[in-house]
Amino acid sequence: MIPLYKTWLIQIEITNACTFQCANCTRYVGHHRKPYFMDLGMFEKAVDSLKGYHGGIGIMGGEPTLHPEFPQICELLNRKVPPQKCGIWTSGYKWREYRNLIKKTFKYAVSFNDHSDPNQKHQPVFVAIDEVIRDKKLMWDLIDHCWVQETWSPAINHKGAFFCEVAAAMDIFLDGPGGYPVERGWWAREPEDFRDQVERYCRLCGAALPMECSSNREAADLISPGNLELFKKHGSPKIARGRYQVFDRVMDDRVRELRKDWSPQNYLGVRTGRFIKKLLPLQYILLFLGEFRRKKDLKLDELWLLNRGTYNTRRVWIRIKRKLFEKKPPRGNFSPPNGEERK
Ligand code: SF4
Question: Which residue, of 1, 13, 145, 260, is most buried by count of CB atoms within 10 Å of its CB?
Fold first, then answer.
């Protein structure tokens, strides 16, 4: 586990309402009986608590633009945090209504994913690692190197502060004890201080499990038997509708095998590795224009703004920028390790 103060981003999760119900959603969308919306007081507290944090502040959901006070949230952020430190993760749902506000507040990092690409995948987070891995030493080793924790974000939601965004979502759904108090510098503590959350939630999670994933567009979540009972107990509407598939295999040997070449960061379905490294800037531009053709209702500069935060064209942006315009990322801007992007 890497210390939270070394992460590149902390998400403030202002709602878990969403217009989609993707398979294996890391925010448990579809399993909550009622969405939450963070109140402005809590949001301000969350922003203040991150004073001194070196990384970016992300606004995320669910779909953050569904928050009824989204304009006020942007205003508050504008007042307190320079735009180069802010990012938003959106499906573009209210882009027409909020485009100017979003451009003003998050001009350096708008991460757009309309989840329309069937090649995108979510790690089966509802398969409890504790149920499918017999060798507990292996289990804790996988958890200690969880790619979500190492390359993504701690999170703050209306229940407090969490070392990991998936654990934060789990705490809401499972009616957990809540996170740490959202006070200044909570993120500056050492990893051992977050051990209780790790013990409570990582065992129930499948993010650290090297295994094959299905498309986000699949109707069913993959879930282990113990978690299925837990989800039923907590009244998951998606489970009640039968939108799940039980996964009850012992995975020790398969995991040892898959672990060697596992690259879970590739969940957005883009070909990476040698192939992508050899692509010329011109080919990246063609990829971008292909996307422009698919989303004709956006102006070219808007699509660029929206997509430079996403995986495909984020890569376009980063590579072109690094190759042609600059040697180092601009000061004060933030970007994920290896230029990876998600959601
Ligand atoms: S195993 Fe799950 S809860 Fe634990 S750090 Fe990874 S994503 Fe978060």
Answer: 13
Phi, psi angles (nearest 5°) of residue 57: -115, 120
Minimal-distance CA residue to ligand 1 atom 5: 149
For residue range 218-251, what is the model confidence (pLDDT) as tens digits?
778 999 999 999 999 999 999 999 999 999 999 9
Q: Cβ(89)–Cβ(25) under 8 Å? A: no
| Ligand 1: residue whose CA is nearest its atom 1 | 202
Nearest CA to ligand 1 atom 6: 146
- Residue 292's pLDDT band (boundaries 50, 70, 90)? low
**Mean pLDDT across 73-100:** 89
Half-sphere exposure of 15 (CA within 13 A, CB side): 21
pLDDT at 291: 61
- Cα 263 to chain centroid distance, Å, stands at 16
Helices 136-144 and 252-259, axial angle in degrees (round to 10): 40
Instruction: For residue 325, give the 3-state DSSP assignment.
Output: helix
| Index of the ligand 1 atom closest to the CA of residue 202 | 4
Nearest of 207, 213, 216 to residue 164 by alpha carbon: 207
Whether residue 180 contacts residue 30, with contact meaning beta carbons closer than 8 Å, is answered with no
Ligand 1 centroid from CA 66, angstroms: 26
165 CA → ligand 1 middle, Å: 8
Pairing of strands 160-162, 155-157: antiparallel
Q: What is the pTM of this model?
A: 0.80
- Asked whether the bond before 273 is cis by omega within 30 degrees of 0, the reply is no
Please indicate whether residue 53, judged by its CB atom, sits closer than 6 Å to ligand 1. Answer: no
Ligand 1 midpoint to CA 173 (Å):
15
Q: How far apart are CA 211 and CA 207, in angstroms?
A: 9
Q: What is the 202 CA–ligand 1 centroid distance (Å)? A: 5
Alpha-carbon separation of residue 16 from 28, 84, 162, 193 (angstroms): 8, 25, 15, 26
What is the pLDDT, as a whole number, of residue 304? Answer: 56
Whether ligand 1 lies within 6 angstroms of the CB of 1 is answered as no
Ligand 1: atom nearest CA of 170 is 3
